[in-house]
Design brief:
Order of helices and strands: HHHH
Number of strands: 0
Low-confidence stretches: none
Radius of gyration: 12 Å
Helix content: 55-70%
Largest sheet: none
Strand content: under 5%
Number of helices: 4
């Protein structure tokens, strides 16, 4: 399997998540990149299903944001 179908599938998942649930997607990105504090109010917005193991671009963004 080449990289292009994997990245295209991952891109589509991320775009669908950002369009469908923009607040939850951004909160999940910031929460798992440790840029948001860990509290129960923010925990309600975090969607663990966005962390699917094949969502490569989402994991890439989390790792890049951890550098800041």
């Amino acid at each position: 399997m080449s990289l292009m179908p994997m990245m295209l599938r991952s891109l589509m998942r991320m775009v669908v998540a950002l369009v469908d649930q923009p607040a939850a997607s951004v909160t999940t990105l910031l929460y798992y990149s440790d840029l948001l504090p860990r509290n129960l109010n923010l925990e309600r917005l975090v969607r663990r299903e966005l962390l699917h193991h094949e969502n490569y671009l989402f994991h890439f963004l989390i790792n890049v944001l951890r550098c800041f």
